[in-house]
């Protein structure tokens, strides 16, 4: 069985990789491209989309070789886990639980 890692990332997926919101990325993507902190999107009209390999290459550039390998392995494991309904359901429950805890603080 092969693990499919996404070939393209939409604005919300790239924003999540950057720890930002989709709205923030819509307002700042051009500046990030100019600063070479993000590759140019492959699609601009009708919604932004980036080549996943290019995004990860830019994000992983400051990492060591071993760290790049680990990051790729974690991404592949996450992609595999998200395909399993049981794992995805458990992840949603945890996210809801932590969101509820965060709202009480």
The pLDDT mean sits at 87
For the terminal residues, how far apart are their CA atoms?
43 Å
Q: Which oligomeric state applies?
A: single chain
Q: Give the SSE string.
A: EHHEHHH
**Dominant shape:** globular
Instruction: Work out the radius of gyration.
Output: 16 Å
Largest sheet: 2 strands, antiparallel
Number of separate strands: 2
Strand order of the largest sheet: 1-2
Low-pLDDT stretches are: none
Total count of helical runs of at least 4 residues: 5
Give the amount of beta strand, in percent. 5-15%
What structural class results from the helix and strand content? Answer: mainly alpha
Helix content: 55-70%
Write the layout of secondary structure elements.
Elements: E1 8-10, H1 11-18, H2 22-34, E2 49-51, H3 52-60, H4 65-83, H5 85-104
Antiparallel strand pairs: 1-2
Helix pairs in contact: 1-2
């Amino acid at each position: 069985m092969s693990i499919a890692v996404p070939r393209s990332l939409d604005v919300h997926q790239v924003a999540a990789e950057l720890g930002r919101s989709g709205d923030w990325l819509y307002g700042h993507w051009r500046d990030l491209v100019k600063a070479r902190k993000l590759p140019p999107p492959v699609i601009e009209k009708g919604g932004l989309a980036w080549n996943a390999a290019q995004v990860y290459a830019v994000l992983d550039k400051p990492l060591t070789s071993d760290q790049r390998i680990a990051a790729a392995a974690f991404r592949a494991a996450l992609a595999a886990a998200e395909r399993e309904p049981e794992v995805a359901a458990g992840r949603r429950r945890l996210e809801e639980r932590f969101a509820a805890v965060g709202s009480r603080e």
